[in-house]
Amino acid sequence: MIRVACAIIYRDNAVLVTQRGPAMKHPGKWEFPGGKIEPGESDEASVIRELKEELAIDFMITGKLKEYEFDYGNFKIELVPFTGKIISGTITLSEHMNYAWLLPEQLLSLDWLPADIAIVQEVIKL
Predict the structure, then answer these.
(1) Secondary-structure breakdown of the chain: helix, strand, coil percentages, each rounded to the nearest 5
(2) How far apart are the two ends of the chain, measured CA to CA in Å?
(3) Three-state DSSP class for 59?
(4) What pLDDT, in 10s, does the model give residues 35-45?
(5) At 76, which helix (H) or strand (E)?
(6) 109 Cβ partners below 8 Å, 6+ apart?
(7) What phi and psi, each to the nearest 5 degrees, are found at residue 27?
(8) According to the model, what pLDDT value does residue 25 have?
(9) What's the burial of 47, exposed, middle or buried (CB within 10 Å: 0-12/13-18/19+)?
(10) Judging by DSSP bridges, how do beta strands 14-19 and 57-64 pair with one another?
(11) Residue 108: HSE in the Cβ half-sphere, 13 Å Cα cutoff
(12) Is the predicted pLDDT of residue 24 greater than 90, yes or no?
């Protein structure tokens, strides 16, 4: 089981989503930004580190959603979603090919990474 922290980042009523780059697994799929939790690293520290590395932003956690498991067949992941906001920095993509700010009701229009779909549905309900 691979633990992955992700961020649901709000700005006004919109949510930040990122599109995976060509060098990543599942290129072109959309996801909530984040990444693998390293051994000995807390879930919270992981999401803050990943957002700094991948998007050049500082993230303030304001809440946590339910964790979800997803089975890709050859491996399983456990997604740990945090809600929050950007406190400093300007989004600069280092691995992703695109990003967008979407209203929750627009999220299902994207081609999502399968593991993120349960979180998308949760965000729409909030």
Answers:
(1) 25, 40, 35
(2) 28
(3) strand
(4) 999 999 999 99
(5) strand 76-89
(6) 102
(7) -60, 145
(8) 85
(9) buried
(10) unpaired
(11) 7
(12) no
